[in-house]
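User: Here's a chain of 680 residues. Predict its fold as tokens.
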Amino acid sequence: MSPNTVSSASRHWWQQPFANVQTNLQEIDATMDVEQALDVIEAHGANSWLLNTGGIASQYPSKLPCQTPNPYLADRPSGDLTGDAVAAAHKRNIRLICRMDFSKVSSRIAAEHPEWLFVSPTGKPQIYNTLYSVCPCGEYYQERTLDVVDEILSLYPVDGFFMNWFGFSETDYSRIYHGVCHCENCQRKFAEFSGGKELPNGKADPTYPEWLRFSTGVVRALSAKISGHVEARRPDAAMILSRGSNMLYHEANNAFGRELWPHATSEFVSAHVTGLPEIPILVNCAGFVDMPYRMAAEQPELFAQYLIQAAARGANPSTYIMGPPGRIPYKNFAIAGEVTRFYRDHRDMYAQLKPGSTIAVVSQDRVRSADPGYEDTIKEFRGIYKMLNEKHLPFDVISLDLIAKMHSEGNLARYALVIVPDVGSIGRDGAAALDAFVRKGGNVVLTGGSGIGADGGAELATGPAMMRFGGPLKGQELWATYVTPTPQTNMGEFAYEAPIIPVYGNYTRLVWKKGIDKRGMVLPQAPFGPPEKAYGNIGSGEPGAASSKRGGTVLQMPWSVGHTYHEFGTTEVRDYFLNEIADLTGEMLKVELPEQCEVIVSRDNAGLVIHVINQTGYRRKSFGPHIPLQGGRISVKDASGTAEALVSNMQLKTSSKNGVLAIDLPAIDLFEVIRVSMAA
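Assistant: Prediction complete.
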């Protein structure tokens, strides 16, 4: 059987690892040579092809009045790009996935069905490049999409569907904000959802967070509806979209005007693999720098990060280019092929991959993105992410809204430590799950306002805090405030002992339970200018952290230590945090590599799979060429066995002493995968 063989024995082909190429076509590509495209896709190491099929422009002779056939199909001998592509792909055992885009319709359709359209708060439609945006609450999304799916399924043996731009188009391609849809359907349905409230106009309105929860629910329900429809019509065809579908979708990309977060793919995939292991993920990696610059290739080393992180965390990698292969010269396509072919050649291993870390970091629920303080929460998360990553403490990401689910399924128990970075309320179910986790010996770290409910009460019964008093201190209220873990015996003389850790972001004032362990102290704000007057930081008696033990330990830091590190980047902040949690991590690895490496630990049936990703090319706004690394070592506790480097294709030198397996690493170029076979 060839690497690309399509198994007819498997009902759900998408539950096995696969690699994809998306050729996002323009109308002018209707005459493309499908055999030439498949030559490239096959050589790339992919065994599925994501191809434009319907929606904005149908790439087949659609008979539906709600579709607009590509006018350039008239220049194609068959008049049917979709049919030609499906037939040619299946001859090579390559699956064909239909890319659909129902977000917009032509002016003709808009004139015939104004009730389908997005309506701005001012009553205007949203028009972009002659196309009209439509609303997910309307008939086009809710019903006519099913007609289109049915037509395609009746004509072609396609293997799945992906829905692009599937949601409410508050912002257009030019990043112009149009506001919340005010069509009659949205007005009625939001009123039903909210108990009679009026729609917000935009993000500044007080009801916008509620709108965000409403719109998220609409999209998830519609995704489940279409998925169920496809399942009923053709059980062997996948639906790729969001929760409620057969497969989750993530687009890995950079963009000008926003902070580069080089761990975005790793974060997203990990949060869903840990909480939703039953739903596979496709990570579609954009080959261009941003949508307004679709012909400018992303830096190859950054592009490779997307694919490697996707594979390492348990997702299916996809390379995304504009047009047929070769028409636009993407410099990064070659390196993408190297990663994709490695994935293809080790598909059996990736089929077994499961999260293998002892630490979990909780990511904020994105449904809360309109809530006050959300951006501060993201900075707290990223600061803690960077601290752990730099010191090579492997961790998984878990989603706040999936904590209870993970506990009920027994998947929370695999961790020694769960870190909850300033998320605010955890919710009743999440708090109950963490309490049960602690009582069975697990450890929890809370930072900032984590675990404090809307009423100000502490949500974790096992935690050291009783309640919040007053509002949190923020911004300039905290300037010149510090935390120190060291007894300061000479504060009266304004002389101090290191370390002195800055407090930035926010500080939650708490009432502590009796009998807890208070650690360090807060040095409250004192004048910071002019320098002649910049003194007076005297200990407050408030701890920098406090802990309680109820089986396991709950450590609560009532200030945003991650946000502080994200802002300042000083190693004293990082080292303070890591020292405070050192006894709670269940650390299984010691990694001797530069900080500029990402280490991801997974398990397969034989033992450990350790991905080492070289990130020495990381810059603040971009990636550049990386520096090959020499002389690294990984030590695994409570282990014995053998180790091999899969990229270098070699057995590695190991030694064992006192139950620790030391592995000498080869030179690491872009990435390496260490497979450790654990002795029984």
